[in-house]
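Late entry, evening session. Most of the bench is empty. Finally got around to the prediction I had been postponing all week. Sequence below, unchanged from the version circulated by S.P.
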Amino acid sequence: MSQEGYDKLVAELRQLESVELPQVREAIAEARDKGDLSENFEYHAAKREQARLLSQIRFKQRVLEHARVIDTARLGSDSVGLLCKVEMTNLANNCRMIYTIASPHEANLREGKISIKSPIAQALLNKKVGDVVEVRVPAGIQRLRIESIEL
């Protein structure tokens, strides 16, 4: 995982633990004060929200527990690997794409980050500039040529 992704995950966890969870606990206390809990919709909704937040918190804690931050200075840019930015051309339509190979927890297509577990990233791993790879995607088989690799 990149340092940026790790820091973002830590910030999200802090937000959940220090802001959102106390708000939900306050909502539960207010709903409890309104009387009969068996027919109190607000109480049950707040309890469901608390369970959802606790589940998110546990998930993020487990991810951080097992995460390893990768030092990009020790990575080489001669072949495709984790945290590499890869420019490639789809040989069928000459369309150029640029993706960063990221950990599954950092993958975000809008930011141009694809998971290392995705079919495209798996096909690109350990390839060099100029190599042509064939990738099986839901639309069929794509042929991609690697144009550049950078960190």
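Two things to note before I forget:
Residues 24 and 48 are 10 Å apart (CA to CA).
The first strand starts at residue 85 and ends at 90.
Will write this up properly tomorrow.
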